[in-house]
Prior knowledge:
Helix content: over 70%
Largest sheet: none
Number of helices: 9
Shape: globular
Strand content: under 5%
Radius of gyration: 16 Å
Order of helices and strands: HHHHHHHHH
Number of strands: 0
Amino acid sequence: xxxxxxxxxxxxxxxxxxxxxxxxxxxxxxxxxxxxxxxxxxxxxxxxxxxxxxxxxxxxxxxxxxxxxxxxxxxxxxxxxxxxxxxxxxxxxxxxxxxxxxxxxxxxxxxxxxxxxxxxxxxxxxxxxxxxxxxxxxxxxxxx
Length: 144
């Protein structure tokens, strides 16, 4: 851990059960969405009527996996981040020995030195607020 910050992805790599649970949930949601079943409903949206910061990530990830980059990024700009994070968790589960240690070291360095987790969380909240306050035409100008 660096300072008082929690290294989120590094901590997940250190906990294979939790990594597997998160990877499984993410893969299940994307698979259900790809199959046209829509994944599971967003509890935040159903409680507040507002989309959560992650609303649209499943659909955007499916578009991204189909090679539809423009549509994916218009729907949710953090889809590549989600797929990368899930890939890192998957690699952490599959790799052994030096390869796994090297992955953990690289992730720890990125989180500790670059404030990766903190920066991504702040960026996601800013992105979410912009999506909430801008109407569709204003949003379309930003994501052209």
